[in-house]
Amino acid sequence: MRFVIVLLLLAGLVAAGVAGYEPALEYIEEANRATFRTQTSERGDVTEVINATGTIEPVESVHVGAFVSGTIVTLGADFNDEVEAGDLLAEIDPRLYQSNVARDEAALAARKAELQRAEAVLEHARKDEERAKTTKARSPTSIPDAEIDEVTFSRIAKEAEILVAEAAVRQAEANLGNSIANLDYTRIEAPVGGIVIDRKIDRGQTVAAQFQTPELFVIAPDMRERVRIFAAVDEADIGRIRASREAGRPVQFTVDAYPGEVFTGEIEQVRLNSDTLQNVVTYPVVLTAANPELKLLPGMTADISFEIDSRSDVLRVPNAALRFFPKREHVREADLPILDGEEVLADLRTSSAGRPDADSRAEAEEDNRRHVWIEEDGLLKAVAVETGLSDYRTTEVVAGDVDEGMALVVGVRDDT
């Protein structure tokens, strides 16, 4: 009897174990099953941009120097001052140059006096010649021919002295003009109106202009109207930048000084002088932007976004879904060849079949063929898509079995 009871207990235990085996396996499998993070596809706008950095500079920088040497005795402008054309910026000690003007004025007066004396002497010589010739005409024997020749040649010599005196006057006038010009150069005046963005001298400083013109001030005209941004763009993007300029697409940029503000500019020029640094070829692209509040200052670094193309109301998927690459154990068996690079998206090739440029288009489309992943029965299923424009967050879907609102896997959730 006891033996039967033992058998019945063992049978009950075995039956209980068999009955709980499958649920236990299901529980363990469910506990170990991966949980995926997802984001949904949606409809909206996509704008493709090319990013670059640039430096803000004035449209024009006028460098003001000194033509004469001397000590700075007056400073009429300082950093950030707004000046008009003709305003006094600085003055060099004028005393030496005033003395030169006075000297040359005296020399000119002396030369003019010499000219007046020579004119008087010439007039006297002419009178002597007239009297001698008149007397000779009345009485041919009264005055020898030699005396007539003497007064004639004396008059000619006096006329030559007039020419010499006139040349001396002109030379003295030129010397005086040079001294006056040098005296005027002691006043450093603004050649244009604008903002003084640099001052390189101080009162009492001596400037020497004999060998090289010293730079005293830098003036930026029209800085309140507009500034330039010089960006270096990779050679691979220059074609699209030119197309963007021809299409008149806007350019947006930010500066660190105003992180929450977006400024707008336009492409003024794509320059041809390339620059090569560490085998990377870039071209300078010049932008212009309004600056009415003077927020954009010379030397600031601008983070630039060139708008290349845009699409409105298109189906788009998160970029994270395109970047996601699953593990083999999470993928259903039918899609394992995709992980090995053996999958060919033949269904998308049909969109280019029958066209004259089918081969080139197929090659271009091949670069845009990607996969996104969706969860199906606990495993991941690949969905082939052809992508279009892309921005920093989403990418346009041109073709593929993706519907609006579809949950796309972007990662594996780690619950530990």
Protein architecture, described:
- Mean pLDDT is 85; it is low at 342-356.
- The chain folds into 4 domains: 31-45 and 314-413, no CATH class; 50-60 and 221-311, Beta Barrel (Elongation Factor Tu (Ef-tu), domain 3); 68-91 and 187-219, OB fold (Dihydrolipoamide Acetyltransferase, E2P); 94-185.
- The protein has a 6-stranded antiparallel beta barrel with strand order 2-11-15-13-12-16.
- Helix content is 36%, strand content 35%.
- The protein has 8 helices and 20 strands.
- With 416 residues, the chain is an alpha+beta fold.
- Strand 12 (251-255) and strand 13 (263-270) form a beta hairpin.
- Helix 2 packs antiparallel against helix 3 (145-185).
- It is rod-shaped, with a radius of gyration of 47 Å.
Concise account of the structure shown:
The protein has 416 residues and is α+β, with helices and mostly antiparallel strands. Helices cover 36% and strands 35% of the residues.
